[in-house]
Write a structure and sequence with these properties.
Layout (H helix, E strand, L loop, with lengths): L6 H12 L3 E5 L2 E5 L2 H7 L4 E5 L2 H7 L2 E2 L5 H13 L2 H9 L5 H7 L12
Parallel strand pairs: 3-4
Antiparallel strand pairs: 1-2, 2-3
């Protein structure tokens, strides 16, 4: 559920997806699994609970990845230098439609029978 997080953290989660990592909301934190090369590039553990809430990070001892964190900046630089900024931004700004919403907006197929005049 990206909506509960700030834009920098939402970017990080999208970046993690884009780089082959996995994440799952776990209460007030997110369980993140980074591939080995991503973990090394960012000097972060391969598996960590992360948050963008400084109080939760302080109280629960989880990794804080909020706005201004150097690893978020490094992720942004990676996306920009790869020329793939549009796809990373689109994943953040467009929530996935629910199945019901998708079927409600899908137009009905055009009739194939000839019309009678």
């Amino acid at each position: 559920m990206i909506g509960r997080h700030g834009p920098a953290f939402a970017f990080w989660l999208s970046y993690l997806d884009h780089q082959g990592g996995l994440w799952e909301q776990s209460g007030d934190t997110v369980l993140a699994i980074l591939p080995g090369q991503l973990s090394a590039r960012h000097d972060l553990p391969e598996t960590a609970l992360i948050t963008d809430d400084p109080d939760i990070a302080r109280e629960d001892g989880v990794l804080f990845l909020g706005s201004g964190h150097p690893e978020i900046d490094k992720g942004a630089e990676t996306i920009i230098s790869s020329g793939d900024a549009g796809s990373a931004v689109n994943r953040i700004s467009r929530p996935k439609p629910s199945k019901d919403a998708a079927s409600a907006t899908t137009p009905a197929p055009a009739s194939t029978s000839p019309s009678r005049g």
